Amino acid sequence: MSSEKLKIAVLGGTGNIGEGMVLRLALQNLMAEGVKNEVIIGSRSKETANEAAKEAISELENCGFDTSKITITGNSNHEAAQAAEVIILTIRFGHVLPLLHEIREALEDKILITPVVPMVKEGDLFVYKPPEEGSAALAIQKNVPASTKVVAAFHNIPAGKLRDIVKCKAVHHALVCSDDVEAKKMVINLTEHMGCMKPLDGGPLKQASIMESLTPLLINLAKLNGLRDLGINFS
Amino acid sequence: MSSEKLKIAVLGGTGNIGEGMVLRLALQNLMAEGVKNEVIIGSRSKETANEAAKEAISELENCGFDTSKITITGNSNHEAAQAAEVIILTIRFGHVLPLLHEIREALEDKILITPVVPMVKEGDLFVYKPPEEGSAALAIQKNVPASTKVVAAFHNIPAGKLRDIVKCKAVHHALVCSDDVEAKKMVINLTEHMGCMKPLDGGPLKQASIMESLTPLLINLAKLNGLRDLGINFS
């Protein structure tokens, strides 16, 4: 890694899942075992990203955390990706490929994490609708430089629990897939200190379609059975 | 229902998942709330089925259960299906469609439960390989009479835990899908008293592909992470 602290860009870090990711990544700096990092929120507008970064810091302060060891900044998606070693795509599938095209040169040699789930609503329920490559993960891999290490992770963690950094006591399994063994190990390590996730090795990237399809399943099960914010545990 | 006790045929009841199903269905006759039933094991040969029925009864006796209220018999797949109101297909996908063709007339107006998972081994891992209909469940529905009520269930319960009627204390979620609301309710009720399963409404039959794809995921996760006999819980 090029710096002592790992630089992590959360593109779409102003969205639902993105907000929780930013807070939980930042909090690792306060943990004995956490992965020390600087978080860069990426957004289409630098101003929105900056605003979100300030709000994240205030939220951590309001929760009583010591933010002196925490760095959260904001920038455009391209600048954020450029500055980072690890990039997390917390963006809807429909916007992902155009964005990758736009920031392509900033992705060389980086670890790119995709929690992206291509799904559509049909009637009351969601249906998994992967692109022709078989999954969002494989479509993403096809649209980045060969040196980019694509890791599929964080699909099945409910946004509400991820966001709830103080009260959420749930710990759910988080599957991590990649064809790059080192990148997968790094993301598994990052996941271990997220506070509400217990990582499991999900195998090669081609297995990501099953992980992606679990997200509409979780949403549908919640709706059909009067539950909410469902996560998964394997035992 | 045509009799006081529900007649349930377990086709392929001499196999791995089939054996556990037979024992756990039979044990419901000893429960206050269980669905009272007669189990008919179906197999290609009547003799094999009969033998399996006798072994199941002895196993229950050896475990100390009072078998006076339990009926387990064996027959050919066709005769077993003919006699039953509910038919469970604990058979490999490759053998399912030819069997359905053979026993088609015995399926009229019946509830047909499919835990069938079409999957293949690629290298060390299993890959979900659904037929062109999108899932085994939808392919099965296409190959039975219109009056047959197809219910997808019991895909994600590890055979080892299902089979271990005495020591297994695990309770995993079991998803149940069907387009027939009454048949789904009946199977949910049956599942509730299986001893190691907690049913969840999985929605219409078209959702079965996700449930089916979870089985190779569970096998792969166990292999990749040094675990075994994995089941799923949603919370």
TrEMBL record, chains A, B:
SUPFAM superfamilies (UniProt xref): NAD(P)-binding Rossmann-fold domains
Residue ranges occupied by any Pyrroline-5-carboxylate reductase catalytic N-terminal domain in the UniProt entry: 7-117
GO BP annotations listed: copper ion import; NADPH regeneration
Plastid in keyword set: no
Keyword tags: Oxidoreductase
Keyword Signal among record annotations: no
GO molecular function: coenzyme F420 binding; cupric reductase (NADH) activity; ferric-chelate reductase (NADPH) activity; NADP binding; oxidoreductase activity, acting on NAD(P)H
Pfam families recorded: F420_oxidored (PF03807)
Domain of life, per lineage: Archaea
One GO location term (cellular component): plasma membrane
Protein name (database record): Pyrroline-5-carboxylate reductase catalytic N-terminal domain-containing protein
